[in-house]
Amino acid sequence: MPDVADHEEAWPVVSSTLEYDGDGWVVRLRADRIQRPGHPEEKPFKRLVVEHPGAVVVLAVDEDDRVLCLNQYRHAVQQNLVQLPAGLCDVDGEDPVDVGRRELAEETGLEAAEWTHLITTYSSPGIIAELVHYYLARGLTDVGRGDFEPEHEEAEMETSWVPLADLGAAVLSGRVRDAHLTVALLTAHARGLVTQLSG
């Protein structure tokens, strides 16, 4: 039986141009012209790559099996989405679980005693290099947000506690469509870490 696994591979890059440098924001846009291996007679083709440092998503569940959700405006889809606490891996060498700890505290004022890695996935590898690490956080206590001051969309963000059954039903019915929330919730359920996903 063949090994079902991703593997490292890099096709030849004939040229690479930085199209957008990020302008102080998180992403950069690069245009690469690549060559299909073993076919030097073919014309190189262009692919756009969104450079991204990676992220961590936290499924925080309390002792009553409620999930801490964020309601946040996302301009690209022009909707206020139900999402989970999340943040960027933008400090060199920082362990993803430490990113999760920092973001959970900054966005919600909570810390967790138990951290369980759920899964690590690429968000959309046809266009973006974002690698996302998902964690289940339990044993939650309120520690405050410290000196963190939210701005832009985060300044309007609201938090809510949603029972697992209600959140699962909302995901499975398509009323909640954030991919990161869906991946975290369904992975935790598949691993038997959360049980009831619908009423």
The string of secondary-structure elements, in order, is EEEEEEEHEEEHH
- The CATH topology label of the largest domain is Nucleoside Triphosphate Pyrophosphohydrolase
- The beta-strand count equals 10
At the fourth CATH level, what is the homologous superfamily of the largest domain? Answer: Nucleoside Triphosphate Pyrophosphohydrolase
Structural class: alpha+beta
Strand order of the largest sheet: 7-4-9-8
Mean pLDDT: 92
Percentage of residues in strands: 35-45%
CATH class of the largest domain: Alpha Beta
Distance linking N and C termini: 39 Å
What is the helix tally? 3
Query: In terms of per-residue confidence, which ranges show pLDDT below 50 for 5 or more consecutive residues?
Result: none
Task: Explain briefly what this protein structure is.
By secondary structure, this protein is α+β, with helices and mostly antiparallel strands. It has helices spanning 96-108, 164-173, 179-190, and strands at residues 13-20, 28-34, 45-51, 55-60, 66-74, 79-83, 86-88, 110-122, 131-142, 158-163. The protein has 2 domains: 13-51, no CATH class; 55-113 and 129-190, Nucleoside Triphosphate Pyrophosphohydrolase (Alpha-Beta Complex), CATH 3.90.79.10.
